[in-house]
Write a structure and sequence with these properties.
CATH architecture: 2-Layer Sandwich
Number of domains: 1
Radius of gyration: 12 Å
Number of strands: 7
Largest sheet: 5 strands, mixed
Strand content: 25-35%
Structural class: alpha/beta
Distance between the termini: 29 Å
Oligomer: single chain
Shape: globular
CATH class: Alpha Beta
CATH superfamily: STAS domain
Number of helices: 4
Strand order of the largest sheet: 1-2-4-6-7
Order of helices and strands: EEEHEEHEHEH
Helix content: 40-55%
């Protein structure tokens, strides 16, 4: 899976470099984010600017990771969401919970960094 992580102003950024984020890639994606949370990271941004398609399993995975981050006293936010992915977030109601930002810099800035 094409995935990278980086730190910027105290925020962990997970960049997904896949055009489609769905099973079986979700396992690796979920593991990376879960390990960041386990390491004590509280501010997470998932950059989905390369992702043009997600399925319902991906939405479920994002909601689960959002809940884990919240339970740990942190936050998970999305950046660079393409229209089709945004439609899925809206249809499932996930956008009512997960903050969506137009790009990575604005998502990082939203943490007050």
């Amino acid at each position: 899976m094409n995935l990278s992580t980086e730190q910027a102003n105290g925020v962990s950024i997970v960049r997904v470099g896949e055009s489609r984020l769905m099973y079986p890639l979700l396992s690796e994606f979920s593991t990376v984010v879960t390990e960041l949370l386990a390491a004590g990271e509280k501010k997470l941004v998932v950059d989905l600017s390369e992702v043009g398609y997600v399925d319902s399993a991906t939405i479920g995975c994002l909601m689960d990771l959002y809940r884990q981050a919240s339970a740990a006293g942190g936050a998970l936010k999305l950046a660079g969401v393409q229209k089709r992915v945004e439609t899925m977030l809206t249809m499932t109601g996930a956008q009512n919970f997960i903050e969506v930002h137009p790009d990575e810099p604005s998502a990082v800035k939203s943490f007050g960094a």
